[in-house]
């Protein structure tokens, strides 16, 4: 068996570590979406998680696992938003500093939230090289621990608790549909789901304008993201060195959806389920409702993750 960044035992340990910290988010259903999808859908509502996204799980697991000596120096990350908020909150809860590098183009609502949680924001140019350079400079200056948004064993293990909880609530699921950008959520969920219930099928959901994982799966090798362009701003990142092997081996297929399909799914969830999901958070639902996914046989019950609900309400999404 291949060795991945974490295993089921690490996900279960993360679940214990997060008890009393992370919300155990509800699983919700919709008869309307079931009818449109042609099967039963079970939505894991991580839009209702602390900071409004699943990212809190991975960040809090990583921060809580640090030794007292290491934690006292603080934590560093680079993130466009949700992980930045999550790490700032997790650090505040432990009483340690959080140094957050954010691109200048990050949504104002997300920057304000990071600062509200006590994060010390450093702005950089909106590219991965500049983000990493700024983060490395902070690590060198402060001695703080670098906790990246997805390519970290403790972050992946924390995200895997989403699938652990979902399968505890709905143990007879046939498959999971999980959105992916860097791949921390889908890889953690794949490790957890296939570990708890071998034979569970795991599918990735990706915007057509940021489809590096789909292209990588088709090519059978890791292909980096090039010029992503999508309204799903949380899914612009390439998969990582730790997440790609899991996606390669444990994710059956990555489906892509257009921005119009994402908008339609987002609006449908707002209107019919009365749940606020951000564009990235609606990608899984868009895939579940797509003709390509509906054509797959043998899937009666499918879990779908609403990954986040941090939207800029001044923007006319429709």
TrEMBL record:
CDD domains, sorted: Thr-dehyd
Domain Tryptophan synthase beta chain-like PALP: 21-308
Keyword Lyase: yes
InterPro entries per UniProt: TrpB-like_PALP, TrpB-like_PALP_sf
Keyword RNA-binding: no
Molecular function (Gene Ontology), one example: threonine racemase activity
Cofactor(s) for this UniProt protein: pyridoxal 5'-phosphate
Swiss-Prot/TrEMBL keywords: Lyase, Pyridoxal phosphate
Coiled-coil zones: none
GO terms classed as biological process: D-serine biosynthetic process
Protein family per UniProt: Belongs to the serine/threonine dehydratase family.
Matching PANTHER family: SERINE / THREONINE RACEMASE FAMILY MEMBER, SERINE RACEMASE
Protein name: Serine dehydratase
Organism name: Gemmata obscuriglobus
């Amino acid at each position: 068996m291949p060795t991945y960044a974490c295993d089921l035992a690490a996900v279960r340990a993360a679940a214990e570590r997060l008890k009393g910290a992370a919300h155990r988010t509800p699983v919700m259903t919709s008869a309307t979406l079931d009818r449109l999808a042609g099967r039963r859908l079970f939505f894991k509502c991580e839009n209702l998680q602390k900071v409004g996204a699943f990212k809190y799980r991975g960040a809090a697991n990583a921060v809580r696992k640090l030794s007292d000596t290491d934690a006292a120096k603080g934590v560093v990350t680079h993130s466009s938003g949700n992980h930045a908020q999550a790490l700032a909150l997790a650090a505040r809860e432990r009483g340690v500093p959080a140094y957050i590098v954010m691109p200048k183009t990050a949504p104002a609502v997300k920057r304000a939230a990071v600062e509200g949680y006590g994060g010390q924001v450093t702005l950089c140019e909106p590219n991965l090289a500049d983000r990493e350079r700024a983060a490395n400079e902070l690590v060198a200056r402060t001695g703080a621990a670098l906790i990246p948004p997805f390519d970290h064993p403790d972050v992946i293990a924390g995200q895997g608790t989403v699938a652990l909880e979902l399968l505890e609530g709905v143990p007879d699921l046939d498959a999971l549909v999980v959105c992916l950008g860097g791949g921390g959520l889908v890889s953690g969920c794949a490790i957890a789901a296939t570990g708890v219930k071998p034979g569970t099928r795991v599918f990735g959901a990706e915007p057509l304008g940021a489809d590096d994982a789909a292209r990588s799966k088709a090519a059978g090798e890791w292909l980096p993201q090039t010029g992503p362009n999508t309204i799903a701003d949380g899914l612009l990142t390439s998969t990582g060195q730790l997440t790609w092997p899991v996606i390669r081996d444990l994710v059956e297929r990555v489906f892509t959806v257009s921005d119009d399909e994402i908008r339609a799914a987002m609006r449908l969830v707002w209107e019919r389920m009365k749940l606020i999901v951000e564009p990235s958070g609606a990608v899984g639902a868009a895939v579940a409702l797509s003709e390509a996914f509906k054509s797959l046989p043998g899937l009666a019950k499918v879990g779908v993750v609403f990954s986040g609900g941090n939207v800029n309400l001044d923007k006319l999404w429709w």
